[in-house]
Structure formats: C-alpha cells, structure tokens
Amino acid sequence: MFEKILIANRGEIALRVVRAAREMGIATVAVHSTADSDAMHVRMADESVCIGPPSGAQSYLSVPAIIAACEVTGAEAIHPGYGFLSENAGFVQVVEDHDLTFIGPTAEHIRIMGDKITAKDTMKKLGVPCVPGSDGGVATLEEAKRLGEDMGYPVIIKATAGGGGRGMKVAQNAGEMEKAFLTARAEGKSNFGNDEVYIEKYLTTPRHIEIQVFGDGKGRAVHLGERDCSLQRRHQKVFEEAPGPAISAEERAAIGKTCADAVARINYTGAGTIEFLYENGEFYFIEMNTRLQVEHPVTEAIFGVDLVREQIRVASGMEMSFQQEDLTINGHSIEVRINAEKLPNFAPCPGRITQYHAPGGLGVRMDSALYDGYSIPPYYDSLIGKLIVHGRDRPEALARLNRALGELIVDGVDTTVPLFHALLQEEDVLTGNYNIHWLEHWLETNLGDG
Ligand code: ADP
To answer: Any catalytic annotation for residue 291?
Structure first.
C-alpha cells in the first residue's frame, strides 16, 4: 500500500480523497494555486505545495508542476479527482513514465473512452446496446443531411471529443441541420481541438441512467447498480438518485451484468461509469466516464462502500474488497449539487461566505470545502457542495432532503438551494416522474430560464 499520495484537484473532491486516505493511514499532499492558499483541502491535507497562479491551466492542469510536487514530497501515487486531469491520457502516460502510479485506469482506457466515436464502437463490439446513429464520424454536411433523412428527425450532432454538455447540437428537422452540424463542429474545434462529429437519433423522452462499474485490471469487474441523473440543466446534472425510480431489479441485474462483463473483457482498472439513455424499457449507451463521478456518494450510500478507498486499493495492486455477491442495495439515496450561482439565470456568484452551517443527523452527508469566512474564488467551477441523503426508501430520503436543506446555511453568496426547495414541492419530483427534459421545461415555465 502507498504511504503518501498526491491529490491533483481542489474543493470538495480533494477533501473527499484526503478523508479516504486518512482512514487508510496514507499521508496526503495537496496541491493548490495561489488563489487557493486558504482552501480547506490545503488545510486538511498533511502537506501542501503551491503549483502556480490562479488560472487552472497554469496550476491544476500543469503537468510539470504536479509531477515536480510529487518528486519534492515523495508522493508515490496521484489521485486526479474528477475534471482537471482526470481523463487526460497524456497525463497518465507522463505519470507512468515518472514511475508514479495514477489512481485510475490506464492511459489506453482513457484514450479509447475519451473519443466518443471509438468508445461507442468499442462498446458495440462488447455487446453494450448503443443509440442508433452514424457509423463513425460524419465528414460533410451532405452526408449529415442524408443521415438525417434516413434516420428520421430529430437527430443530435455530437463532437467526438465533447464533454460537459458542450459540442452537442440538436436538429429538429432538415432545415436545422446545417446550423447544428456547423456549430457542433465549431464547438468541438474550439473547446476540444477536434472538429470530428457524429450523429445519433435524438431520443425525446429518455431518462439518463448510468451504471457504476469497478474493475481490478486483471479481468474481474463488478457493477454497483445505477444512478438516475435525469434532472439536468443544459445537459449538466443537478439532482441524482440511486436506485433509479424507474428501473426494476431485473433490468438492473441485466444491464449491470452487461456493463461489468464489458469492462472485465478490456481489463478495466478502478471506477468507471457507463452512461445510458433509457426509454421505453431500452438502454442506449452514450458514453463512458473513466473516473470517479461527482455523484458517486449516492452509490456509496446504498451499497455501503467507499469507492475512493477501493480506487486506492486497486491502484496499489490489492484486490477489490468486494465481489458481485457482496453488493446489495440498502435503501435510497439522493444528492443535490449546490452551486454558487444566482437564479434565475444560474450566473456564477463567487464571493465571501459570511456564515456556513452544514446539516447533520441520521442519513445526511455534506461534502463541501466551505467554511465561515472562506472566499470562493472566481476562477473555477461553481460547485460548492453536495448534500447527500440516505433513507430506507425514496419517500424517507425525500423527507430527509427537505429537512437537511432547511438546516443548511450558506450566507454571503447566492446558491442553488432555493431551486431544490422548489423542486421538492413538485409532484413529478416526489413521484420520480421525470425525464432529461423535465427540468429545462420547469425552469422555463417557473423561472423564465431558457
Ligand atoms: P457529455 O460528454 O457532454 O456529458 P453525453 O454524451 O454524456 O455528453 O450527453 C449528455 C446529455 O446530453 C445526456 O445526459 C442527455 O441529456 C443528452 N443527450 C446525449 N445524447 C442524446 C441523444 N442521442 N438523445 C437525447 N439526448 C441526448
């Protein structure tokens, strides 16, 4: 087992990794930009190294600075968290070249899954059901139009290198194709340096269901059920739950096995998430994330496992601590993402926290790096906390969420907390009757957010 690991991230996820490491008796090194000198992850880690100026590109994304920090502190392995360098195959290669361990999958797995066309092709070959669409990339507008006619509108044009909801455009009809095709290409080029796009049938009322998988890198893999992350704004998740209210035990077992078998066949290492759209009882693969997800705590809650601990174990060469038979679901869990954003337009709202009080009590987990007097810097993501609740069943989890939201105090900046208070008044949310478009419609109707 490692004696010391470095965490190449910030905020709540850096703290999350510190906590797991500390329980395992592993020392931690935090890295930080000059804007984060007073950040909680720096205070909580055993050691810290300043790696650059505020901009992410010059600090949390600076590969030489992070490798140097490992060398200076003697850290043996790097946990990347999510975002930043977590899905950067080039970084993993550099880490390995320096005889350090990347706590995550291999560079090759990241490369395969990071290109959505290759990912889809790989999954199809592994027997995973995919959204009907083009066979690989679509090079010209003429080809895109022909495919639109063949498949039938609406269709979605996606940048193969896309992520975070960017590089995707819907064409409702032939008339919209030119603009959608050119915009998706341009977004792919400007955001990800790759203008290759492909086309999929646009599903109109699906849920977003994702399967948590975990592999030991030696051909053994398990699944930890699904998360329903259908409540999204601009293709970004805001409310996630497990198990999915619409998924039966039989469906879970079947799609879970398909996913576990697929990643076992490619000797996948560590945590991964296979994302699907789910409509009329069918699952359609959209992409795989080769890292820990923001919403991993809902899975941890219902299975009673520590996924970060497991990632560290497997990266160090140990066996997984569970097998498929050990993994049984206990109750229901919901997470809401608390962002420093001002409604109704979700404008980022950095600033000083004058008062912070985290909710507590049975079945409540608050993952956050906030503290009284902390100043949220304007340079990074607006996620400031995740409130996760666990109950014996969905109604109990909902009641607990309502109660915990009422206890939470975040003064000094605007947050998305009022959104969740409002959503918990909605019959559709209370009954789990929603799909990936539900929240967009609700926001348009109730907040005029479009
Ligand atoms: P990203 O990598 O940017 O997160 P994904 O491929 O995971 O992109 O898709 C993100 C979201 O976009 C999905 O959760 C869903 O809401 C929507 N989406 C993606 N593909 C389709 C599709 N074929 N039909 C309908 N919605 C889609």
So the answer is: yes
277, 289, 290: which to mutate for ligand 1, most atoms within 8 A of CB? Answer: 277
- Our answer on whether the CB atom of 219 is closer than 6 Å to any ligand 1 atom is no
Band of pLDDT at residue 166, cut at 50, 70 and 90: confident
Question: What tens digit of pLDDT does each residue of 115-160 get?
Answer: 999 999 999 999 999 999 999 999 999 999 999 999 999 999 999 9
Whether residue 300 has its Cβ less than 6 Å from ligand 1:
no
Q: What is the pLDDT of residue 163?
A: 85
Amino acid 115: pLDDT = 93
- The CA 286 to ligand 1 mean position distance, Å, reads 7
Q: Could you give the domains of the chain?
A: 4-88 (3.40.50.20), 132-201 (3.30.1490.20), 207-446 (3.30.470.20)
**Is ligand 1 within 6 A of the CB of residue 152?**
no
CA separation for the pair 31, 70 (Å, rounded)? 10
Distance, in Å, from the CA atom of 21 to the CA atom of 3, rounded to the nearest integer, reads: 9
Q: Is 439 in the pocket of ligand 1 (CB under 6 A)?
A: no
How much is the average pLDDT of 329-349?
Answer: 97
Rounded to two decimals, the pTM is: 0.96
Q: Give the position, in ligand 1's atom list, of the atom nearest the Cα of 131.
A: 23
Answer yes or no: is pLDDT of 450 > 90.
Answer: no
pLDDT tens, 398-424?
999 999 999 999 999 999 999 999 999
Active-site entry in 10, 291, 337, 365: 291
CB 215 within 8 A of CB 269: yes
Ligand 1 pocket, residue 131 CB under 6 Å: yes
In 3D space, the residue among 360, 419, 349 whose CA is nearest the CA of residue 384 turns out to be 349
